[in-house]
Amino acid sequence: MSLVLGLFNYWVAILLMMTGFFTVIWRSNFVKKVIGLNIFQASVFLLYITMGKVHGGTAPILNDSAVYTHPLPSVLILTAIVVGISTTAVALALIVRIHEAYGTVDEDELHHLDDPA
Amino acid sequence: MIDRHLLVLQVVIPLCGAPLVLLVRHREAAYGVALTVAGVAWGLAARIVYRVASEGTLSYALGGWVPPWGIEYRVDALGAVAVGLAATVGLAGLVFAPRSIAREIPHERHYLFYVLYLLCFTGLLGISVTGDLFNLFVFLEIASLSGYVLVGLGPSRRALTAAFQYLVLGTLGATFIVIGIGLLYQATGTLNMADMARLLPGVGRTRTLVVALAFFTAGLSLKAAVFPLHLWLPNAYTYAPSVVSAFLAGTSTKVALYAMLRLFLSVFGRTLELEWAPLHAMLTVMASFAIIVASAVAIFQSDVKRLLAYSSVAQVGYIVLGLTLMSVNGLTASVIHLANHAFTKAGMFLAVGCMVLRLGSSDLATLKGVGRRMPLTTAAWVIGGLGLIGIPATAGFVTKWYLVSAALQANAWILVTLIIASSLLAVVYVWRVVEVAYFRAPDGEAGAVEEAPAAMLIATWILIGATLYLGLFGSGPVGLARRAAEMLLRGAP
Known about the structure:
Strand order of the largest sheet of chain B: 1-2
Number of domains of chain B: 1
Helix content of chain B: over 70%
Oligomer: heterodimer
Order of helices and strands of chain B: HHEEHHHHHHHHHHHHHHHHH
Distance between the termini of chain B: 27 Å
Number of helices of chain A: 4
Radius of gyration of chain B: 21 Å
CATH architecture of chain A: Orthogonal Bundle
């Protein structure tokens, strides 16, 4: 029982990770690839935050003797989220340029346009 | 004052230079600022290398917070090699840039090019100086994100798809690295690499650490283009602007390999020995395939930039091969080859950039007779090519010497054969270009071209000269590499 419920967050993280990874690899549409990349990164955010969570813990504000959740993983993930947003922004900008240059954002069609065999 | 804050200034100066260039906007003034910043950064890097060589490891506590609580910047012999190569290739690329991008990037976007270049430069230097694992990830992403955009600035529309492919694979790699960092943090409670190396033996060989190592291997192999995870590299280097190809080929994969050496040996070294894990066999096989398959593929390329790109994949293989031999000679070969190959390959890409400026293409067919029209440029390319083969008096020879002696010591005759076979394949692909450049008559337009502008030639020859210097009088750098190798083998932080 604890293998499922006790590690619930980790299972969800793994599920999200695989969903995202699959989308990145399998989908030929560039926008969908970026969405997959986002899901993949979100799973890692979840993994980190779960890691720092203490059962019954609160925000680490020094006023009483309460149990605190470890703040450092959350802070790290704040940075990782910023990195993720920047990556998404660059990716979307590239997709706009690709659409301008080719008229499509589908990987298979792009290959066909570049190497008409 | 400068000496006390040396390590942090190495990162802060180019980081502040980038927005400054953005504010300046004016094309020539922006270039002036960028060149000054890169020059200062090179001076700081030279000082760091000198001090590490004479005094040993340097450490700097960011904001006065004592490590491991605060972020530590730390440069040892291995870091000094990485800082030195990143700063030198970065400066040479910037000296080369203005005339080259004038033909490849619209004029009104030049200042943006310099902003991105400085950001990428910051990231690469940051990876080399930081002692904090999460900091390393952030710098890796600063370098990679600006790198994707730099690739996307290339003149043909294929540059855009190449940049997108690079972005997707690079981001997957980076995310794998973050997972690895998270698992290590979970096991040790620290992010400082030296502290982590001290704490890990107490943790023991738990599954968490094995999984972390697996994620690091996949992530860093993607970033460093270790065969067969190199798929982003040929397109990215072929379609990027010439100077970007040189800059990225010289620095980005080398810095990722630096991170790989650091993690595998300094951080994990005393807990999960490389020989223990199935990792060792896998890396040996991957590296062996890289040096043979990538060299063979390079022979069949009709575009010189793509040929050099595949050759890069093979050269990355040499570095990984040196790592798997796990001896002082093998690791010395790996560490010194970081610098040797950075200078050789960046110099060759710059020489190709000179040809592209004058001929408009890097296709082999347009290079007919270029050896007679642009003798200095072609000579630089050929000396670089001899370095790839490993002819004595070039830097490549020093690497091969240490690599082969390490393989002989380990009685790995198959590896010796593979290294020699790969060198022979390099002879073939270098000769193909030499033959076209010197022994074919130039046709039509190519007959009228003249030698490249002085600034571009100087930048090219600085890097090619550096490879000759390393090949002929390289005992100082080799000594530094040997110190780094001994330190890595001891697993000392």
